[in-house]
Amino acid sequence: MLPRPTTHSKALGPGVAGPELAVATSAVLDRPPQPTAQRPLSGAQAFSVDPSLVESADGPRQHTQYPYVTGTSVLAVKYAGGVMLACDTLGAYGSTKRYKSLERIIRVNARTAVAAGGEISDFQYITRLLEELATDDYRTDDGIELGPREVFSYLTRVMYNRRGKMDPLWNSLVVGGVEADGTVFLGTVGMIGTHYTDSHVATGFGAHLARPMFRERQSDDMSEADAEALLRDALRVCYYRDKQSINKFQVAKATGEGVAIGKPFALETKWDYKAFAAPTKWAIGAW
Amino acid sequence: MATLTAGVPKHAAGAAGIKQHASWSPYDDNGGTTLAVAGADYCIVAASMRMSTGYSIMTRRSSKILQLTDKCVIASAGFQADMKALHKMLQSRNVTYQHSHAKPMSCPATAQLLSNTLYHRRFFPLFTFNICAGLDDEGKGAVYTYDAIGSYERTGYSCQGSGKDLMQPVLDNQLKAASPLLIPARGDTVEIFVITKEGVRREELELKKD
What we know:
Organism (chain A): Raphidocelis subcapitata
Strand content of chain B: 25-35%
Subcellular location (chain B): Cytoplasm; Nucleus
CATH architecture of chain B: 4-Layer Sandwich
CATH architecture of the largest domain in chain A: 4-Layer Sandwich
Number of domains of chain A: 2
InterPro entries (chain B): Ntn_hydrolases_N (IPR029055), Proteasome_bsu_CS (IPR016050), Proteasome_sua/b (IPR001353), Proteasome_suB-type (IPR023333)
Oligomer: heterodimer
Strand order of the largest sheet of chain B: 10-1-2-11-12
Pfam families (chain B): Proteasome
Organism (chain B): Raphidocelis subcapitata
């Protein structure tokens, strides 16, 4: 086989052979080391950094191991003709309520909405991935869009792929929408790729606080008004008990007519319950 | 983090409450129990449909059984995301096999493929506990049971997953004369695949939703 000349410049670095070294003759190999970009003209050793000197005490550089700005629970239920998603608008920096008007629900296309809890910057990256998918659908211009099930399937693979690289996207995602045939879809995927579909889902604190309410009150053929009332009650409970939440919420609906993301609103709250003032009054042995 | 914990042993750092951040694990245990019983010319496979994490139920209706062909199914418990990835991969390998050989993969061949697939990931294992079951080349019931890294053997019956400690003694005690209806099960629903030469039949058995 003929040696294939490369287009690389020798200046690119060691091990990148230019046309000269592609054919290794003794004339090239036996001559003394020549000055290169890496080897100074003075003939001294090239400047290099001993990796052990710059290594941090924790060992080599690591991927994201913990989140910075986070969103809390996302709640969602199916109802007659669609799916409704809800969450608050807080981006918390640790326990600081840092960003109070973050919208954590996005419209992917006419049939699909995605909501996220967890690291906000990771969600913004995911948003960009989904925008690319939607743009691709638009450019193809055949009237076909990804359905919610397909968006969900894609996201499960993205999340699982990144956990496999030990560099997870620190999010819990909820995907809701209506298929072309009118089937209502609702699913959720976590940061390590665990995923499922159900009639109602909730991430984070919501899994403990809201899902018991959903199990009692949700049905797939409930009215839109009932679904919204249920979500508002669930949001209120989450707000009472989750310190990393604020009283500013968004509700989004995905129906056959499209995706509608509502304006932020606040809920009526009541803090003078006697049980709030003396929470352990009837809990003997508590402090 | 580096300055605070430098020189402090890991366990001491935890005890002193120095840990500052949420941490994560690439694995989870999503529970679930699977079992399979081989007969002379049939095979019965069942799996619970609950998916849980810790004390929380994520969903009451998620299938753990992959039907690859008319003569072979795979039931898996353990980490759901690994399980789905494994099932997706085996499904696609099965399709490729059919394109190459114009016939579905036999149950013993699938069993060997599953073992190889699991061992391929020896140093970042798939946290799944599998049973491959169906009819072998002679039409006899076959049950293959695995550990997470691909060790496997053919047995007459097997169970895996969170309920195996309760179930295996019952199987050992009862399955001189097989009747899967005697098997104690918890969870939301059991899906049961009965594999005979006529094909695969799926049934559901409702359990206490506690």
